[in-house]
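Duplicate of #3305? Posting structure anyway:
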């Protein structure tokens, strides 16, 4: 009997076909009204947007129930605080490393030195200059004034804060809390089944997303921006394959090559959706079943990472700062470069993990160091493609920090991690993926 394709393989096939179809539409049917109205902005847009909404639909309930199970599974408030502090500091450190490395590489390669500037002022008006929020406001806004509003808006930092407080209260209420924890565990199991149902439609959703993106953007837009585009990709690869691999090998004594291989399903989803939040269900699935991290750790660190860990976005900001400074022939000093590092870290905390948010963050950074915000118009054309790659790096960072924290807390099953076939998702195995000794 022929072995069935895994869901991941089907998604890769859908991605490839979508890229090809989208490129053909862009090349030969860009001005065909019927194709644009009924295929690109009709079928592809509707199915792709519905798939993204389905993924986002999972995030809040899945994070809520998983986080309750994780806190109750840890059972000790002191351990919970230690896990949270480790994860937060690691996320901040990797973001700082990412933007610093990106600026060093960009300064050495110097993209934009010989760029022929022709900026559309109409496009630049899309970006209003925004002041970076004060640190005090960032800290205050972690605490929700209205938990219901936080859940409705999907404000992940506020949701995480409230759910942790609620779960700690459950631990302190004895038998009543244990009954609620059992209920949360059952609801979490049901939510994982919902994840399964949504993933069954993933190949179609990814196909539509890729086809629409390349039908609108095309590959030709990359050519005029090849210097900037290439440096960003180089830095993303250096960080994903270099920095994260070293951290895994040194801090967790784990095989980086096996890690990269097992992260493939999360990478595919992150690339196709360009949303860290939308990829949370898949990232948690991979980290727990493929990498062997216990739910008590993953349920806390993955949602936190999707909210505060923006390594890919920080890399874009570092390269874009040097690129725009070169284009406008503006000399930046050491103090301004350090400001970019600090701003990138600050802007990543509490920023929604959704497509395109990096450009708004970049406007804040440019305003802070005195670069013209209208320069963002130059990178608009290739940003959607880079956003997809940045998100893949972001979720890689989430999983890396989760594995390192799990190693420190002795909550990672190395036998599962070292098994190349552990947690492989197929149509037959998918309904039983949570059954683990």
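Output from current build:
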């Amino acid at each position: 009997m022929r072995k069935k394709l895994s869901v991941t393989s089907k998604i890769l096939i859908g991605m490839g076909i979508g890229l090809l179809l989208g490129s053909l539409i862009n090349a030969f049917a860009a001005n065909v009204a019927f194709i644009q109205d009924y295929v690109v902005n009709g079928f592809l847009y509707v199915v792709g947007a519905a798939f993204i909404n389905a993924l986002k639909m999972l995030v809040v309930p899945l994070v809520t129930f998983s986080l309750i199970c994780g806190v109750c599974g840890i059972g000790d408030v002191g351990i919970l605080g230690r896990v949270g502090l480790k994860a937060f500091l690691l996320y901040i450190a990797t973001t700082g490393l990412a933007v610093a490395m990106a600026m060093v590489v960009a300064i050495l390669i110097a993209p934009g030195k010989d760029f022929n500037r022709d900026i559309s002022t109409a496009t630049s008006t899309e970006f209003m200059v925004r002041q970076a929020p004060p640190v005090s406001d960032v800290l205050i806004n972690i605490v929700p004034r209205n938990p219901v509003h936080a859940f409705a808006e999907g404000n992940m930092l506020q949701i995480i804060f409230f759910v942790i407080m609620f779960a700690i209260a459950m631990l302190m209420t004895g038998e009543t809390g244990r009954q609620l924890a059992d209920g949360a565990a059952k609801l979490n199991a049901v939510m994982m089944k919902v994840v399964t149902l949504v993933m069954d439609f993933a190949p179609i959703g990814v196909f539509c997303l890729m086809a629409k993106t390349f039908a609108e953007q095309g590959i030709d837009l990359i050519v005029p921006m090849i210097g900037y585009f290439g440096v960003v990709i180089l830095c993303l690869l250096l960080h994903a394959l270099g920095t994260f691999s070293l951290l895994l090998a040194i801090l967790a004594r784990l095989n980086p090559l096996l890690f990269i291989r097992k992260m493939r399903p999360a990478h595919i989803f992150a690339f196709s959706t360009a949303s860290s939040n939308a990829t949370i269900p898949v990232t948690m699935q991979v980290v727990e079943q493929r990498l062997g991290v216990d739910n008590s750790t993953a349920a806390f660190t993955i949602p936190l990472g999707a909210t505060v860990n923006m390594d890919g976005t920080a890399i874009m900001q570092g390269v874009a700062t040097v690129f725009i400074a070169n284009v406008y022939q503006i000399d930046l000093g050491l103090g301004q470069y350090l400001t970019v590092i600090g701003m990138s870290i600050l802007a990543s905390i509490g920023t929604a993990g959704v497509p395109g948010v990096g450009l708004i963050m970049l406007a804040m950074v440019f305003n802070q160091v005195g670069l013209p915000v209208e320069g963002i118009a130059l990178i608009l054309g290739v940003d959607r493609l880079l956003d997809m790659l940045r998100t893949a790096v972001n979720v890689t960072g989430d999983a890396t920090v989760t594995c390192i924290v799990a190693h420190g807390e002795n909550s990672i099953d190395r036998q599962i991690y070292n098994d190349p076939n552990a947690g492989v998702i197929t149509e037959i195995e998918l309904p039983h993926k949570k059954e683990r000794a």
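Confirmed duplicate; merging threads. Residues 118-130, 426-437 have pLDDT under 50 and may be disordered. Residues 7-432 form a domain with the Proton glutamate symport protein fold (CATH 1.10.3860.10).
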